[in-house]
């Protein structure tokens, strides 16, 4: 079971080297926000449980064809179950939670747990998972710390998130142990509130271009801004 879920998650992340972390306050904005990301070539998004509307946002954004929507900031089993009921295709947490891992295991919906210390990584490995959200990436010491993790954990791939932006994403993506990067720089909460859809599309397309310039975008299905030649 863990193998299937891990395989699904890793394939999704390999195809989507930049995963936006999305905070939407008004469910009416979910579909246009999803479409704005998609128009920029982003095909996968993490919608965080940081607003009371998160479940409705996940449900609405999941209706955007071509966009794979997961739930972020999943802190407990109830949120995990709610997210799955609303259509979340994967679960992300800022840390590791056994109850969330249990829900993932029972449902078959992949789980990307957060880890920021070697002890976290060992706990995650003990649950049969080997892809870890390194969070908060920059505040925890950035690339030098993750490079140090790669020594004892060669079997682990990481999704650094937190404090990453257009100036640093390419450097993270160039590291062989980084599977993809997460961040909100292409879709800020303020831009969603202000319905800056064109700006979100432009920043998304920039992010995809940046990822394409890194070594891992070869064959990144879907990482294609609308209307562009590959
Ligand atoms: C997260 O929840 O993963 C982070 O808040 C995203 O970090 P960023 O806003 O610094 O990109």
Short structural description:
By secondary structure, this protein is of the alpha/beta class.
Write the topology of this structure:
Layout: H1 2-15, E1 18-22, H2 30-39, E2 44-48, H3 54-61, E3 68-72, H4 77-85, E4 91-92, H5 98-107, E5 111-112, E6 114-115, H6 118-126, E7 131-134, H7 142-150, E8 157-158, H8 169-173, E9 181-183, H9 189-193, H10 197-213
Parallel strand pairs: 1-2, 1-9, 2-3, 4-5, 6-7, 7-8
> Bound compounds, please?
3-phosphoglyceric acid
* Low-confidence runs of at least 5 consecutive residues: 216-230
Q: What integer value in Å does the Rg equal?
A: 16 Å
* Strand order across the largest sheet: 3-2-1-9
If you consult CATH, what is the topology?
A: TIM Barrel
What percent strand?
Answer: 5-15%
Number of domains: 1
Q: State the helix count.
A: 10
Give the total of beta strands.
9
Query: What is the CATH class name?
Result: Alpha Beta
What spatial form do the alpha-carbon principal axes imply?
globular
